[in-house]
Amino acid sequence: MTSDNIRNVWLNQTGGTGETLKDWLADPMNASYGEQLSADAAAASAQYTELQNYRTQIESPVENIINQFGSSAYQTEVTDPGSGKSVQVRIWLTSPATPWAYVEQVTGGNFGGDATAGNPRSFTLTSTSSTYDYSEYTAAGAGEAWDDFIGFEAEGEFSKVDWSKFDSNYSAEFSFQDISTVTVTPDAWYQGSDVASFAKGPYATGFSEFASGQNNFFFGVGGALSRVYTSLVVAYRPKIVITAGSDFSTYMHQQWEAEAGIEIGPFFFGSETSGSQTSSSVSVENASLVLQSTADWPVIIGMVSAWTVAPES
Q: Which of 50, 79, 232, 263 stands 20 to 30 A from 33 (CA)?
């Protein structure tokens, strides 16, 4: 029985005679009501104490998280490729720490040389492969149709190859002097353990941990904070040999000379017309088109991520 109900009982029994609630509760006949009020007061006090303890427990960690996230010590400036302006971003760490360190590692300290200490990989696709599946070879990304897989970079736009002109039977042999997985971790502005500890809430009205009705949710498939980067897949000096008849090879080589370069999936082989010294070569050998990267830097071919908070099973 709530305090309001007890007050109503007091009013009904006294009929407004003037007997105070305190005196009425002092009557042994009404002792049970007093005991109930005392129990309710004790329960409310315990809940208030629990709330205060909870606030004490979370205020300091939350303040620390906010300070870490906003700390300039874990931020740096980069150039926005779209605007050319310098923007402030939070730092991510990699291992190896820099592209230079990676190249030094796979070349055995011979920067700019071949990856004599690398992890070479190769595979071949044929006309029976309707799509190129990144996940099959690099454990990252989704497949692309061959129609969109090979094309030209011309004046900032991608132009497809019209395959109807050429042999419908083709093969593409991919080889890499090295394919490696580079570990990616956020700097101290992010602490996964803190996220996990707060993931259970409590949440404000309209928000939830996982998908729930019309709520805005943070974790699981489609959540605002569903995944966090854990690594990237890099390749060093890819070589691609495409065999699709001499007409195809000649046409592609001519286009490479005339345009800015050839794109094969995530790989770009620039030509001299790109306006800078090329770091690739394209040639025709035995009616096959041979594209060879001679770049000193690796190319990112995929990103790997993990659940920020694992979905409920």
A: 50
Query: What total number of domains does the chain contain?
Result: 2
Q: What is the C-alpha to C-alpha distance for residues 210 and 66, in angstroms, rounded to an integer?
A: 23
DSSP class per residue in 89-107: EE-EEEESSSHHHHHHHHT
Q: Does 83 fall in a domain?
A: no
Residues 113, 42 share a domain? no
- 262: containing domain: 91-307
Instruction: Note whether 232 and 299 are same-domain residues.
Output: yes
- CA 227, 230, 236, 240 dihedral sign is negative
Residue (of 230, 210, 231) closest to 222 by Cα position? 210
Q: Which residue has the higher pLDDT, 242 or 274?
A: 242
Alpha-carbon distance of 265 to 182, in angstroms, equals 20
Q: Give the Cα separation of 174 and 152 in Å (integer).
A: 18
Q: What's 184's DSSP letter? A: E
Count other Cβ atoms within 10 Å, centred on residue 127. 14
Element (H, E) at 233: strand 227-243
Out of 51-55, 218-222, 273-277, pick the least confident.
273-277
